[in-house]
């Protein structure tokens, strides 16, 4: 039997991911300030549009972490109720009953993560190509990034996007498309007894088809069963890192493609440090 891989300290893990969320929000503030000073210019309507796109992107950030919070709360409540049951048949019935709730929250994390990349596409198109086309989703911006006949293909932003898509994002989208267009892929539950303490525990294992869609998780699953909480935290950690990479590259793009006259504007970050724009 495989060992189970779970999050050892869910509260600490949630705090760590919350800090990543905060760091990304700070980075989007830097991006907006640089864009409005170097591209949009003073009182430009472009600045308002850029801010609107960034707010939509931040919203997806929040939604992802909110659904993880719901999952961690569900785990605490379900574990407590599970341990209160006195016979095996009741435990099995209860374990089966909570699986759809975990699966629904996990799917929501997937949906918001992929949607976040679609929102990224809107932002990238606006900043790099000076166009607002909300019909162009992530697949569309990747197609443009690979199109050697346009200038965008030659940018460092395009190079990064193709790399991130090949390494992770296309696999995440496969999982999302499977759930939307074909069939649900629910988790499984396992009832484990700790022989040393004689306490029963409830563990909800991540869906097999989802694990197989993402190479890094598939490798881990060869030696371990991955819990839904572990898979969710791992995925959010990766998604937030990719969001951060994209934001940083957009900041770099703005820095190297200034359209306004250079001045001495300063931005103050969340830590109180000043940066010249």
In order across it, which strands form the biggest sheet? 1-4
Query: What fraction of the residues are assigned to beta strands by DSSP?
Result: 5-15%
Arithmetic mean of pLDDT? 85
Give the termini separation: 57 Å
Q: Helix/strand/pairing class, anyone?
A: mainly alpha
Domains (count): 1
What is the 3D shape? elongated
Number of helical segments with 4 or more residues: 8
How large, in whole angstroms, is the Cα Rg? 22 Å
Q: How many strands?
A: 6
Sheet with most strands: 2 strands, parallel
Relative helix content = 55-70%
Poorly predicted spans: 191-198
Order of SSEs:
EHHHHHEEHHEHEE
Q: What does this entry show, briefly?
A:
With 277 residues, the chain is mostly helical. The chain is built from eight helices and six strands.
Structure description:
This protein is mainly α. The protein has one domain (3-258). Helices cover 68% and strands 9% of the residues. The chain is built from 8 helices and 6 strands; from the N terminus they run βαααααββααβαββ. It has helices spanning 10-40, 45-84, 88-129, 138-146, 156-181, 208-213, 215-221, 228-255; strands spanning 3-5, 188-194, 199-205, 224-226, 266-268, 274-276. A two-stranded parallel sheet has the order 1-4. Strands 2-3 form a two-stranded antiparallel sheet. The protein has a two-stranded antiparallel sheet with strand order 5-6. A hairpin with a 5-residue loop joins strand 5 (266-268) and strand 6 (274-276). Helix 3 (88-129) packs across helix 4 and helix 3 (88-129) runs antiparallel to helix 5 (156-181). The protein is elongated and about 75 Å long. The model is unreliable at 191-198 (pLDDT under 50).
């Amino acid at each position: 039997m495989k060992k189970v891989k779970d999050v050892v300290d869910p509260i600490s893990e949630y705090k760590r991911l919350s800090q990543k969320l905060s760091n990304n929000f700070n980075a989007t503030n830097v991006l907006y300030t640089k864009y409005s000073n170097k591209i949009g210019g003073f009182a430009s309507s472009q600045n308002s549009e850029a801010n609107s796109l960034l707010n939509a992107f931040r919203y997806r950030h929040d939604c992802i972490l909110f659904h993880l919070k719901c999952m961690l709360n569900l785990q605490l409540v379900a574990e407590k109720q599970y341990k209160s049951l006195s016979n095996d048949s009741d435990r099995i019935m209860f374990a089966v009953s909570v699986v759809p709730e975990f699966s629904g929250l996990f799917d929501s994390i997937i949906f918001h993560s992929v949607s976040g990349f679609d929102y990224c596409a809107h932002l990238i198109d606006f900043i790099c190509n000076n166009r607002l086309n909300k019909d162009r989703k992530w697949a569309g911006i990747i197609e443009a990034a690979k199109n050697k006949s346009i200038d965008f293909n030659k940018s460092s932003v395009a190079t990064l996007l193709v790399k991130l898509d090949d390494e992770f994002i296309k696999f995440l989208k496969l999982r999302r498309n499977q759930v939307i267009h074909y069939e649900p892929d629910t988790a499984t539950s396992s009832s484990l007894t700790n022989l040393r303490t004689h306490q029963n525990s409830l563990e909800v294992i991540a869906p097999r088809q989802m694990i197989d869609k993402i190479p890094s998780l598939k490798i881990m699953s060869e030696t371990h069963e991955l819990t839904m909480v572990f898979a969710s935290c791992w995925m959010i950690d990766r998604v937030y890192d990719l969001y951060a990479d994209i934001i940083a590259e957009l900041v770099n793009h703005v820095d190297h493609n200034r359209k306004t006259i250079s001045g001495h504007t300063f931005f103050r970050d969340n830590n109180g440090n000043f940066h010249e724009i």
